[in-house]
Design goal:
Arc Repressor Mutant, subunit A, alpha/beta, two-stranded antiparallel sheet, 297 residues, 10 helices
């Protein structure tokens, strides 16, 4: 998909948004490719390794750095890219699109994308939205990274049998697989949003999934976080909002001090401190899984 002639791409998009420079359009095109799970020059692929820097994202030469910096600053001023950087697997990401940015990307490249590639996303397991960007409507890059990492690194045995962003009544996990002869498996990615009630509703839904499962076939719900602090804060939310949620030593006074391995140890039957929770099987973080795969360069 990256074989398209960049000059042709930018010439076509030029007529749709004359106020954007070639450098600005180049950044947004590469954001679209990365977001939608296409391999970029240099081998960068969302969820498979640490994310590229902005320079790596657009394959910039040293003599283009000043132009690149100016383009990013203008896109941030226009509220197309988030003003503040985020850190994914401890690497700075400066190119997260805002809601406005998602719409601009669609205006610039939506018709081209649909015409050239005859479809929407990159996996048949993903639901279609109105946006040319894959994933949930208005999904942030951090969350998108986690969902794709679950599938790309085949965490908990993830494979093509998983449906990403399933639809249905009530809160849904971010990925789920239900097989006739084994237990259902699901993944929930939490990146620290402020809708505490939604987090609680999701957990209750996972508990119900366990209740509905065949006798003796406990479902596995794999919770994935950007870092240990977000995991500990999520436990605090559940501790306060779900009556039958009882996690050892929670709520935590200093969530930043907790590593996911420490939290996960409470759920590990081998460690001797096994604490069964119907809606949680495993805690993990983006960075830990990338490093364990040897993709931390």
């Amino acid at each position: 998909m990256t074989h398209l002639d960049p000059d042709a791409i930018f010439e076509e998009s030029h007529n749709l948004a004359v106020s954007f420079s070639r450098a600005e359009r180049h950044i947004l095109w590469r954001v679209l490719l990365y977001y939608n799970g296409m391999e970029l020059p240099g081998g960068y692929y969302i969820g498979r390794e640490r994310p590229p820097s902005l320079r790596e994202l657009v394959s910039a030469r040293p003599d283009q750095y000043d132009i690149l910096k100016q383009a990013v600053e203008r896109l941030r001023t226009l509220d197309i890219l988030h003003e503040e950087s985020a850190y994914v697997c401890r690497k700075e990401v400066k190119y997260r699109p805002t809601r406005t940015g998602r719409q601009v990307i669609d205006d610039l490249f939506g018709a081209l994308w649909r015409r050239e590639f005859g479809g929407w996303g990159t996996l048949p397991t993903e639901k279609e939205t109105d946006s040319v960007l894959a994933g949930e409507q208005n999904e942030g890059l951090l969350h998108r990274y986690g969902v794709r990492q679950f599938l790309e690194l085949k965490l908990d045995g993830a494979d093509d049998g998983f449906t990403l962003y399933p639809t249905g009544s009530g809160p849904q996990p971010d990925a789920i697989a239900e097989y006739e002869y084994t237990y259902p498996r699901a993944c929930e990615v939490q990146t620290g949003h402020n809708d505490h009630a939604q987090i609680a509703r999701k957990y209750r839904g996972f508990v119900q999934l366990a209740a509905d499962a065949k006798k003796g076939w406990k479902p596995r719900v794999y919770w994935l976080f950007p870092d240990g602090e977000t995991a500990a804060r999520t436990i605090n939310i559940l501790e306060r909002r779900v009556n039958d949620f009882d996690f050892p030593n929670a709520p935590f006074e200093n969530p930043s001090e907790y590593r996911p391995s420490r939290l996960d140890s409470y759920l590990d039957p081998v460690s001797g401190t096994h604490h069964a929770l119907a809606g949680i099987e495993t805690f993990d973080t983006f960075h830990k899984k990338i490093m364990s795969q040897g993709n931390g360069a």
